[in-house]
Each structure stands twice: as C-alpha cells, then as structure tokens.
Design a protein that fits this description.
Layout lengths: L2 H13 L1 H21 L1 H4 L3 H21 L1 H4 L12 H14 L1 H17 L5 H29 L3 E3 L4 E3 L21 H52 L5 H45 L4 H10 L3 H20 L5 H9 L10 H27 L4 H39 L7 H7 L9 H12 L17
Antiparallel strand pairs: 1-2
C-alpha cells in the first residue's frame, strides 16, 4: 500500500469516530434517560441496572474515541493536536471503557440464570450482581491505572494503546528503544484479548444453553397439546387449558428473552470482533493493517447506538399494538423519551390534574347555585358541599385499600396452596412487557404511579351546574 493511501486511511480512522462516537453517546444516553424516567420500576430490575452500567461505560469510551483527533499525538503523519500525555489519557479511558464490552458477558449470565436455572431477580441481585459489578469495574480500572503508571500506552498507527514503543520507533535487539518489546504481547493479551475471548466463550455457551432450553420447552408444549387434544376428544370434553396456557406463557417468555439476548450478542460481535481480527492478523503476519484499524475505530464506538435500538425494540412493538392510531415518529418519541414519573404527562400528573378539574368544577357549581339562590349563608353551603365531597373521596380511598388487602390475601392463599405462578413469570411482569406479548408491565406501572397519589384514579367528578 502506498504511503499516501495509508495516510488517508489513518486520517479517516482518526476522524470517523467523531461521528460514530457521537451516535453511540446519544444511543447510550437514551437508554439511561429511559431507565431514569421510570426509575421506580426499572431500578428494581437487574437487567436495567446492568444495561445502565453498560451505557455509562459506553459513553466514556465513545467520548474518548470521538476526541481522538485532540488526544492523538501530533507530528505522526495525521492532522492531530495531542501529545504524549494526552495519548496516555486516551489509553486510560480506552482500557477503562472496555468494561462496556464486559457487561455483555454479565447480561448473558443474567439471562442464563433467570431462564435456565429459574433464579429470581432478588437472588441474582443479592449475590451474583454485586460480584459481577465488582469484578468488571475493579479489573478494568486496575488495568487502566497499571497501564498509565508504567507507560504502557503509546501511539499505534490509529489510536493510543499497548505497544512495545512509540509509533515509528525502531526497536533494537537490545530493546533500548522499546521498553515493552518482549512483554507488550502479554500485556495486550491480558488487558484486551483475554477478557474479549472469555466473553465470547461465555456468551456463546450461555446463549446456546438458552436456545436448547427454549427448544425443549416448545417440544414439551407441543407434546402436551397433542396429548390434551387426544384426551379431550376421547372424553368428549375440554382439556386442562390452564396448564397449557401456563406452558405457552413460559415458552413465549423464554423465546422472547432468547431473541433479545441474541440481538445484544449481535451488537457485541459487530462492534468488538474487529479488534480480534486485528490481533490475529498482527500475530500471524507481524504487520499492522491500516484498513482493519479503520474498522476498529468505526465500529467499536457504535455499540451504544445498536444497544439503543435493541433496548427500545420490545417497547416499540408493544406500544405499536396498543396505539395503532399513532404514527411511527410519535411511538419512537414515547419509546426513547418516556414521560417522567410524576412529571408532565405522567400517570400521577394526570390524576392530580383530574382532581384539580373536579375541584374547579365543584367551585363553579357552588358559585352558580349561590348566584341563582341569592342566599345569605354562602359560606355554610360551600363548606357543606366540600365536606360531602371530601367524605366521598375518603370512602373511595378506603375501598381501594380494602380491595388491595383482599388482592394480597388472595395472592398469599394461592402461594399457600401451591398454585402461585412460577418465579420466572415475575420477570415478564417486571420487564414492562418488553419480553412478553401483553401489556402487563404498562398496567403495573400505572398502578404503581396511581398508588402514590393521595386520591384514587376513579375519583368521581362532582355534578356540573344544573345536573342532578
């Protein structure tokens, strides 16, 4: 490859991340906003906490990549403005930002334990989640600190990372010009390729086991459906529809989780596989290929961009079914920018607005009645009407409390008799309907938001003036 073409490829590799990194920041930022806007529900779910941490590290990594033209040292054949110190800073955040890729491993483990092992979210959150968060953050932070402290991060042809010496330096046999001539390969394997290869193995194995579990569930459901149909025909009656319905729900949930997991895996492979290709080519040929470096700088910052669409996909499908009259752009806005809890457009704000409208209507009714009657005891009549209105609201609140108690008692009775739903279905409800076919999560959110209001959702409006 001629020097001019090589220089153009290197320059493109430095400046293209300004676009791809910005897209990834916007994608990961939308995930964080969606989680925070509905935090009372999503903070309870380990999946959203894992995706939140993945998005935070992806933002750090993407910003670092987008600013490479400012941190890559100048005078190395490409128009940049950095120096040795900014190069070391770039290497630090590159290494620390690799934690975003490691969280794909954590997410696959979460799906496997929930689906295959039947572990509850509470059990995962109490033990596994804390350990995995600690391992990912401590390892990558330690690698980044060690790399900066020993001067391991130096310019490569397209970015600052682990090299035997600075870009363009000719390493002598004695190693005087290259401080890490004999050890750079080991550092690169431990700090970069080691965890990527581990992530590949864990992701492939766990998703394969999830697929086998889903396949086994579907086969069992088909076998049971055939047996139930044969039995029903022989007896001339219906089969056990409840058990078949439970099996279909469980199979549908596992299948949808598997699809979602595979999409995240696809985003991981599309983003991180080029680093492995670069490593294999350099290991076998001893040459750094410029176009592979260009692909690394282009695709590595895009993981947050892919994740945003994968994260929004189930909610988009559900909202599309619920609100077929809305246009595509309106649904996309609802998906990426949901109303904040208790804020404008939220469930709680709608309840409060409705109550305020009821009070305003009541005052208007009292004023109109006073104007028609012309009595002198205006204050007493107004006070009496408000007292009756407040008493009605208290009765409704008492009815809701009683209904909630009855529902909890019935759930405890079902658990005591062994007819409660399996723990796996709890994930469907808490997943805001994202992995299920129904809109259970949206209903639960509305109930939770309404329960925080002082007045019930079904507070009756007082009669308007002239109505009986």
């Amino acid at each position: 490859m001629d020097p001019i073409t090589q220089q153009r490829i290197r320059t493109a590799g430095i400046y293209i991340p300004l676009l791809t990194g910005t897209l990834s920041v916007l994608g990961s930022g939308s995930i964080l906003y969606s989680i925070y806007a509905r935090r009372t529900i999503k903070f309870k779910d380990p999946q959203h906490r894992i995706l939140g941490m993945m998005s935070i590290f992806d933002i750090l990594y993407s910003i670092n990549k987008a600013l490479m033209f400012l941190t890559y040292p100048s005078g190395l054949g490409v128009p940049t403005f950095g120096n040795a110190s900014t190069c070391a800073l770039q290497g630090f955040f590159t290494q620390f930002g690799y934690a975003a890729g490691s969280y794909n491993l954590v997410l696959s483990l979460y799906y496997f334990l929930i689906i295959n092992r039947g572990m509850s979210k509470e059990q995962f959150g109490k033990c596994w989640e804390k350990i995995l968060h600690g391992v990912v953050i401590i390892c990558h932070l330690s690698f980044a600190i060690i790399g900066v402290s020993i001067g391991l991060f130096n310019p490569t042809p397209g970015f600052c990372y682990i090299t035997p010496g600075s870009y363009g330096t000719k390493c002598s046999l004695a190693g005087d010009n290259c401080k890490f001539q004999s050890t750079a390969a080991y550092f690169y394997e431990a700090f970069a390729q080691g965890w990527i290869q581990l992530a590949y193995v864990v992701i492939i194995v766990t998703n394969l086991l999830i697929w086998l579990y889903v396949r086994r569930q579907e086969q069992q459901m088909k076998k049971y459906r055939t047996t139930a149909t044969t039995t029903a025909v022989g007896r001339g009656g219906g089969g056990d529809d409840n058990q078949l319905s439970e099996m279909e729900k469980k199979s549908s949930y596992a299948r949808n989780v598997f699809i979602q997991s595979m999409l995240y895996v696809g985003a991981f492979v599309l983003s991180w596989s080029w680093a492995t290709v670069f490593h294999l080519v350099a290991w076998t040929t001893g040459v750094s290929v410029p176009w592979i470096t260009l692909l690394i700088n282009t695709f590595l910052p895009l993981q947050g961009f892919w994740n945003a669409f994968i994260y929004a996909r189930p909610r988009y499908i559900r909202l599309k079914k619920q609100h077929a009259h809305l246009g595509c752009i309106d649904i996309v806005k609802l998906v990426f920018f949901p109303p904040k809890e208790g804020g404008v457009g939220g469930v709680g704000s709608r309840t409060t607005t409705r109550v305020n409208e009821n009070v305003s209507t009541l005052r208007s009714a009292v004023d109109d009645s006073d104007h028609r009657d012309g009595g002198d005891d205006d204050d007493e009549r107004e006070s009496g009407v408000f007292k009756s209105f407040m008493a009605s609201m208290k009765r409704n609140k008492g009815m809701r409390t009683s209904s909630s108690s009855s529902f909890q008692d019935s759930q405890q009775t079902l658990k005591a008799t062994g007819r409660a739903r399996p723990a796996a279905f709890e994930v469907v409800d808490e997943e805001e309907g994202e992995n299920g076919d129904g809109d259970k999560g949206e209903v639960d959110e509305a109930k939770n938001a309404a329960a925080e209001d002082e007045l019930p959702e079904n507070t009756p409006s007082p009669p308007a003036s002239g109505e009986k």
